[in-house]
Batch of 2 targets.
Target 1
Amino acid sequence: MSLAQPLLRESLSQQIRDRLLSRIMSGALKPGDRLIELKIAAEMATSQAPVREALRELEAMGVIETLRNKGARVRVITNEELREIYDVRAELEAYATELVTAGARHVTAGLMTCIRGMKKAANKSDSIAFADHNMAFHRIIVEGAGNKVLLDLWEMLNVKMRTMVNVSRSSRNLLELTESHQMIVDAILSGNAKHAHAVARTHVLDNKPGRDEQADSSVAAASPDA
């Protein structure tokens, strides 16, 4: 993907951020690679100001880090870091889904719109768009819970970025991931808050980084040839 594609005038920093994020997720930019403002600005035919803002956003997302006297560089995001975040996310979203089921089931229309968006992105193998719709899906539930502290804690997890990283490392099909969200909608519509809590928690943990490897190991251990 070329960084030199023409940019629209609106939201330059967001476009630069997404292009850099795409390159990081694809492996074109690797952990440890430096991100030089002047060079990026020249490649994108823009000033350094939106590049600087894009880099700040990427740092806030945990994708890059800025070292004193060395500038910005792509940081290593370990599976262990992701697993710990998914553990916390599972509990937050399970609680939010329970609250929504008990008092805000009208959010399901918005959730179905997000599922359609995820399916469209999955068919195009567009991991960035998929992560956008995925984040929107879960945000609708967390916002619908009506608990600001819960929402603030959830936002600290940077769900979009972590979803992108996890998808890029997982062997699971995006269409399968899309379909797994329907179970949450069905659980909310059931009106059974405890059941919805369990379904939402399982959904997050089923997509926890390293789960594929653990499943492979279990199969190997159970095989008579192992």
Target 2
Amino acid sequence: MIQIKTEKNRIRSELLELRSQLDSAEKTAAEVKIFAYLRELATYRYSDTLLLYSPIKGELDVNIAAQAAVGDGKRIAYPISDPDSHTMKFGYVNSPDELTRGHFGILEPPPGAELFSDGVNTHAICVVPALAFDAQGYRLGYGKGYYDRFLARFTGIRVGLALSRFIVPRLPRGRYDLAVDVIITEDGVRAIGKGKG
């Protein structure tokens, strides 16, 4: 387990450095393609809720996809972190403009926001942030475990968005790591597991 953590930290440092060197015009052009592929998914068309993230450290700006989703008649929600329990919930907003500075300096839904409840009447997609994904859909995050804990209970479709250069053959993984169902890059869509349906 210590060996896996050490290897993850090494890869994490390399990927953060690589991401910091991305050309902004290249990243923006890739985002346009990636978000267009997202909206073309059958899963997206039949979904009613998009669980997103507030982009940090050069992540893809999913707030662009959020605005499109609202226009498509979907509800959007963002994480609310609880540092004491290392867990998170998602709170609904009508626009990313409603987000306020929260834990770790990351933008979150304001206090009192209606919370997302994963249930039979909700067809939700969780857009999962990552530094990289591998060919089997496993991700490398920032090492805090918030998403792993949330995804262990989430019953909807897990979608990973990334530039193609951040898709690697295989990432080190522990027993609590979970794969996404769909990976979308500027080169297209790869369905894995539940995503094949």
